[in-house]
Amino acid sequence: MMKMKALTDKEQPIMNIIWEKRHCSVDDVLLELPEPKPAYTTVQTFMRILEQKGFLGHRQVGKKHVFYPLIEKGEYTRWTLKNLKDSLFDGSAKSLLNTFISDNNLSDDDVRELIQMLQELDSD
Fold first, then answer.
1. Domains of the chain as residue ranges with CATH
2. pTM (2 decimals)?
3. From 8-22, 30-44, 47-61, 91-105, the region with the lowest mean pLDDT
4. What is the pLDDT of residues 29-51, one digit of tens each?
């Protein structure tokens, strides 16, 4: 597989739609994008770029190309967080979490969930 690359601000919403729908033509993606909608050819170009980057594959169905994800959202999310941790926090998960926790007003439920997750990791 190719080396993964970050999604651009224009590619991210397209990938989110394809991750959710699983199989999409350009028309399908265009229907889901918010107003003002980009041109058909713009979406088509971005989907081709995503295919070149290794995020999408396609198959021919009649006259349409139906695109599907080659990289799952969870895999991309993990890769993005690892890159963020390595590039902005010198590889420190503690610093990353500290920034996240201190910058977000976590509810008591959020804190309990985090504690439970850490305890589950510790028991593995």
1. 11-69 (1.10.10.10), 73-123 (no CATH)
2. 0.76
3. 91-105
4. 999 999 999 999 999 999 999 99
For tokens 């976590």, name the residue.
106
Residues 42-77 have pLDDT tens digits of: 999 999 999 999 999 999 999 999 999 999 999 998
Helices (H), the chain: 11-21, 26-32, 40-52, 73-88, 93-103, 108-123
Alpha-carbon distances of 111 from 73, 84, 92, 123, rounded to whole Å: 25, 22, 20, 18
Q: Which residues contact 47 (CB under 8 A, 6 or more apart)?
A: 14, 26, 29, 56, 67
For residue 15, what are the contacts with CB-CB under 8 A and spacing of at least 6? Answer: 7, 50, 55, 69, 73, 76
CA 22/CA 72 separation, integer angstroms? 10
Q: Is the pLDDT of residue 124 over 60?
A: no
Is the backbone peptide bond immediately before 36 cis, with ω within 30 degrees of 0? yes
At 80, the amino acid letter reads: T
